[in-house]
């Protein structure tokens, strides 16, 4: 079992350090493309290295002190059980991530393209901002947004990596919610969640953003649902990147996009130049073939007109003792030229 694991780790390592690295560094392939060729390679390496290490520790624990090769392993079931669990947990996480991604795509398909939200910093939040690859859906559900007049307005809440978004349904489509002229997009940086006193289904969302504080009161249908929302929001706030990091990442993304565009333009220009040169070569070859064809036609029509100087070896009556050596040299030179 250990030998099989060792060979498997070696195979995965070759895939990672030879093939994948070669595709990235030598062939300059895109990372997403290479990731599709070698899916889950890094997690697989981690899983099998951990299993191999656990098997080594199991064998080491059974080794007798007086003889390093005298060991008898009684149990490995616990090692294997901790491994079919780690894998199941990882699979469940990936399935959950995929399902949430699909849910977000379904919402985006119903979101009006022209709908947008005005943020506190005067920036505009649009549909394509929800579809950013840096934003993943953490939780989704119905929340009732309490207005200044005390009414509860139905909204669809999307808890993403760094923002909480409220949408409204209109004519079987979604638009960004509009309640009391408050932004329907709340940054998770410096977001505080508090229970509403004497209201087991309500919670306050207090945005202590640097552009200006804002408070929202939202309600759920049950106390358990309210507690679940508070837990999800707090977890998202704890894992949310800092505002400065987000701005730096946006700047890096824009810089990378511009660099990619410049690279694409240069590649296109090189391709046009190469195409022009290929056409010139093709034209020259066609002219050369035409000249050969005309020369062949002239040769076939008047063979007597070809001068004797083109003969590699003279007529038989002129052959002397030096002829074999001369003929060999001439034929070798002719073959090389051909």
TrEMBL record:
Residues 240-249 have a biased composition (Acidic residues). Keywords: Coiled coil, Cytoplasm, Guanine-nucleotide releasing factor, Metal-binding, Phosphoprotein, Zinc, Zinc-finger. CDD domains: PH_p190RhoGEF. SMART domains: PH. Gene3D superfamilies: 1.10.287.2510, Pleckstrin-homology domain (PH domain)/Phosphotyrosine-binding domain (PTB). InterPro entries: ARHGEF28_PH, DBL_dom_sf, DH_dom, PH-like_dom_sf, PH_16, PH_domain, Rho_GEF. Its main location: cytoplasm. The keyword Coiled coil applies. Residues 136-238 form the PH domain. It is found in: Cytoplasm. Residues 238-257 are annotated as: Disordered. Pfam families: PH_16. Residues 1-82 form the DH domain. This is Rho guanine nucleotide exchange factor (GEF) 28. It comes from Goodea atripinnis. The lineage of its organism: Eukaryota, Metazoa, Chordata, Craniata, Vertebrata.
């Amino acid at each position: 079992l250990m030998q099989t694991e060792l060979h498997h780790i070696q195979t995965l390592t070759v895939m990672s350090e030879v093939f994948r690295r070669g595709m990235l560094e030598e062939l300059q392939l895109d990372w997403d493309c290479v990731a599709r060729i070698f899916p889950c390679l890094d997690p697989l390496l981690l899983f099998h290295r951990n299993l191999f290490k656990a098997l080594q520790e199991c064998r080491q624990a059974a080794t007798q002190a007086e003889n390093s090769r005298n060991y008898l392993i009684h149990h490995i079931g616990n090692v294997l059980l901790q491994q079919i669990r780690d894998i199941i947990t990882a699979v469940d996480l990936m399935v959950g991530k995929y399902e949430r991604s699909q849910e977000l795509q379904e919402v985006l398909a119903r979101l009006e393209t022209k709908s947008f939200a005005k943020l506190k910093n005067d920036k505009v939040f649009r549909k394509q901002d929800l579809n950013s690859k840096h934003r993943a859906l953490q939780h989704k559900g119905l929340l009732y947004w309490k207005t200044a007049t005390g009414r509860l307005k139905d909204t669809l809440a999307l808890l993403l990596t760094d923002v909480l978004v409220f949408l409204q349904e209109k004519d079987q489509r979604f638009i960004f919610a509009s309640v009391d002229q408050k932004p329907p997009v709340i940054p998770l940086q410096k977001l505080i969640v508090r229970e509403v006193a004497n209201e087991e289904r309500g919670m306050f969302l207090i945005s202590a953003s640097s552009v200006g504080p804002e408070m929202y009161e939202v309600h759920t249908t049950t106390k358990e649902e309210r507690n679940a929302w508070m837990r999800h929001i707090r977890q998202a706030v704890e894992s949310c990147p800092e505002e400065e990091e987000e701005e730096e990442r946006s700047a890096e993304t824009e810089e990378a996009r511009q660099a990619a565009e410049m690279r694409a333009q240069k590649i296109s220009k090189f391709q046009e130049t190469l195409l022009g040169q290929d056409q010139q070569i093709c034209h020259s070859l066609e002219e050369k073939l035409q000249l050969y064809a005309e020369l062949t036609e002239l040769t076939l029509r008047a063979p007597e007109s070809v001068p004797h100087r083109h003969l590699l070896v003279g007529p038989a009556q002129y052959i002397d003792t030096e002829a074999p050596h001369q003929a060999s040299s001439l034929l070798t030179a002719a073959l090389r030229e051909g």
